[in-house]
């Protein structure tokens, strides 16, 4: 089983409209996506992220992967846990993915061997060029919600060539109990 992370960095495009009282981003906000240049999901858009290394926590992994892939420095304490996604392939858990969201970062995104970064308005996210499950959970995550999801794929490896079969989602899940993440 692979344990991995995804991190969605949001910025305000500056129309002066405040986010709502709950802190949910408004429709003019932009999210930093990457076009993945190699490995699983090559050619597709996603957030920065990747597999946990050594004994790091998911939160530390999200900060490291974002630094390695696009050169942004994140404040680990300002990462909000937004999702826990389980991807099953042919009935077995393939990947557990911790999803984070943050509006706090330092630096300018720059491309790397692994990723080409791009700020994208949240109402223009290219769901047709992403993992098929993303359209089910990412819009809510970009609106400030939390989600727990299970996604079933079938047809053998690699996962990015398997068929997306079905899913279950639980919205507004609470991750406080596991916030050591
Ligand atoms: C099945 N539906 C899915 N929907 C959305 N995102 C998915 C995903 N399945 C995997 N992911 C994410 O894709 C990244 C893999 O990245 P990553 O570990 O870099 O893979 P890659 O094989 O390139 O590894 P190395 O770069 O060699 O470590 C990692 O963030 C992981 O959470």
Automatic annotation (TrEMBL):
<keyword id="KW-0479">Metal-binding</keyword>
<feature type="domain" description="Nudix hydrolase">
    <location>
        <begin position="1"/>
        <end position="143"/>
    </location>
</feature>
<comment type="function">
    <text>Oxidized purine nucleoside triphosphate hydrolase which is a prominent sanitizer of the oxidized nucleotide pool. Catalyzes the hydrolysis of 2-oxo-dATP (2-hydroxy-dATP) into 2-oxo-dAMP. Also has a significant hydrolase activity toward 2-oxo-ATP, 8-oxo-dGTP and 8-oxo-dATP. Through the hydrolysis of oxidized purine nucleoside triphosphates, prevents their incorporation into DNA and the subsequent transversions A:T to C:G and G:C to T:A. Also catalyzes the hydrolysis of methylated purine nucleoside triphosphate preventing their integration into DNA.</text>
</comment>
<dbReference type="InterPro" id="IPR015797">
    <property type="entry name" value="NUDIX_hydrolase-like_dom_sf"/>
</dbReference>
<protein>
    <recommendedName>
        <fullName>Oxidized purine nucleoside triphosphate hydrolase</fullName>
        <ecNumber>3.6.1.56</ecNumber>
    </recommendedName>
</protein>
<comment type="similarity">
    <text>Belongs to the Nudix hydrolase family.</text>
</comment>
<dbReference type="GO" id="GO:0042262">
    <property type="term" value="P:DNA protection"/>
</dbReference>
<dbReference type="InterPro" id="IPR000086">
    <property type="entry name" value="NUDIX_hydrolase_dom"/>
</dbReference>
<dbReference type="InterPro" id="IPR003563">
    <property type="entry name" value="8ODP"/>
</dbReference>
<dbReference type="GO" id="GO:0046872">
    <property type="term" value="F:metal ion binding"/>
</dbReference>
<dbReference type="Pfam" id="PF00293">
    <property type="entry name" value="NUDIX"/>
</dbReference>
<dbReference type="GO" id="GO:0008413">
    <property type="term" value="F:8-oxo-7,8-dihydroguanosine triphosphate pyrophosphatase activity"/>
</dbReference>
<dbReference type="GO" id="GO:0008828">
    <property type="term" value="F:dATP diphosphatase activity"/>
</dbReference>
<dbReference type="InterPro" id="IPR020084">
    <property type="entry name" value="NUDIX_hydrolase_CS"/>
</dbReference>
<keyword id="KW-0460">Magnesium</keyword>
<dbReference type="GO" id="GO:0005737">
    <property type="term" value="C:cytoplasm"/>
</dbReference>
<comment type="subunit">
    <text>Monomer.</text>
</comment>
<keyword id="KW-0378">Hydrolase</keyword>
């Amino acid at each position: 089983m692979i344990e991995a992370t995804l991190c969605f960095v949001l910025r305000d495009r500056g129309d002066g409209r405040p986010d709502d009282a709950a802190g949910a981003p408004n429709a003019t906000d932009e999210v930093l996506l990457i076009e993945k240049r190699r490995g699983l999901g090559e050619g597709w858009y996603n957030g920065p992220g990747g597999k946990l290394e050594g004994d790091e926590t998911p939160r530390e992994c999200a900060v490291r992967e974002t630094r390695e892939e696009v050169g942004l420095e994140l404040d680990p304490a300002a990462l909000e846990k937004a999702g826990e996604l389980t991807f099953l392939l042919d009935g077995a858990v393939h990947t557990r993915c911790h999803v984070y969201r943050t509006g706090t970062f330092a630096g300018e995104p720059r491309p790397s061997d692994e990723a080409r970064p791009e700020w994208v308005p949240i109402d223009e996210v290219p769901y047709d060029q992403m993992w098929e499950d993303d359209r089910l959970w990412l819009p809510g995550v970009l609106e400030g919600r939390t989600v727990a999801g299970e996604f079933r794929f079938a047809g053998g490896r690699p996962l990015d060539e398997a068929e997306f079969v079905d899913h279950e989602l639980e919205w507004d899940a609470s991750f406080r109990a596991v916030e050591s993440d």
